[in-house]
Amino acid sequence: MAAAAGRVTARSARRRSSLRTRLELGLLLTPALALFLLFVLAPMAAAIYYSFYRWNGFGPLTNFVGLDNYRKALSDPVFQGAIWHNVLIAVLSLLVQLPLSLGLALLLNGRIRGRALLRTLVFMPYVLSEAITAVLWLSLLQPGGSVDELLRGVGLQSLTHQWLADRGIVLYTLFAVITWKYIGFGIILFLAGLQGVPPELKEAAAIDGATAWQTTRRIVLPLLGPTVRIWAFLSIIGALQLFDLIWIMTLGGPAGASATMSTYLIDRGFRRYQFGFGSAVTVILFAICFVFALIYQRFALRRDTQGALTRMAGS
Fold it and tell me: Which of 202, 207, 8 shows the shortest CA–CA distance to 106?
């Protein structure tokens, strides 16, 4: 009898403990879930709903057009060009920013004089807001601005251009500004990854006669793989959603030469009061980012997350 009563008491204690845990989780998660529902899921559902209407943002929703807004967006040459511009910036980020960030991180990770100051200087542009960066470079790149005057001062006046008005180079000019702005983030991220490389491996490689380049290529870079993949994911997602710098500097012009999906969305949705059409563009942009994130998670980040989960379980 005493043993049975003890088991009943133990079960009751476990149930009370489980109930208390659930209540605590509910109290802690409810505010975050409420904010997520209010500011993420609800606007997303509203955008999907509005995308089926031809609506200028005023009055009731009466002109149902089904998928017509999606067809118009996907068949618009300006939107197709905007998608290509986002993809081009993402590819250029991988081809230019990745080796540049990685090389500077390796350099700043070594024992050089003024290393702390140099790290601060390369990270400073990233701290600036996009609006400040855009206004700063907008003034520098104006005809007769500081960039042109610098080129003339060193005898390269033939290289002066209408940097933000020439359709052939405006996107590459903006990419240079984007690189200046965001390269510091990549450098700091890679520097953090380099701190996780065991120094014993470098010492063992040096004892075996490996050169500095061989050690970097055979040991350091493979161990930086997870950090590189995280950086690539953040860089590509940022390129697909790029808006602030381009909108302030060029408004997507001239003639759509620097338009991105986000600038196209704001131009159609808010400047031309085509809220239904803009909502369709929003859904398309979200779908592109979401599908990319799923594919990248499946094929690039899966082994990194699995390794992290395995280490957590082992600990």
Answer: 202
Q: Please count the residues of the chain.
A: 315
190 backbone φψ class: left, alpha, beta (φ>0; ψ -120 to 50): alpha
Question: In the beta sheet, which residues pair with residue 53?
Answer: 64
- DSSP category for residue 145: S
Q: Which are the contacts of 82, defined by CB distance < 8 A and separation ≥ 6?
A: 252, 256, 259, 260, 261, 263, 264
The DSSP string of 215-253 is HIIIIIHHHTHHHHHHHHHHHHHHHHT--HHHHHHHTT-
> Rounded mean pLDDT of 300-308?
65
Closest to 104 in 3D by CA, of 171, 183, 163, 11: 183
Instruction: Tell me which residue of 51, 137, 79 sits closest to 263, measured CA to CA.
Output: 79
Residue 229 half-sphere exposure toward CB, CA atoms < 13 A? 16
Give residue-wise pLDDT tens across range 9-50.
Answer: 656 667 776 778 888 788 888 888 899 888 888 989 999 999
- Does the pLDDT of residue 83 top 60, yes or no? yes
Cα of 239 vs its chain's centroid, Å: 6
What's the N-to-C CA distance of the chain in angstroms?
Answer: 41
pLDDT of residue 3: 54
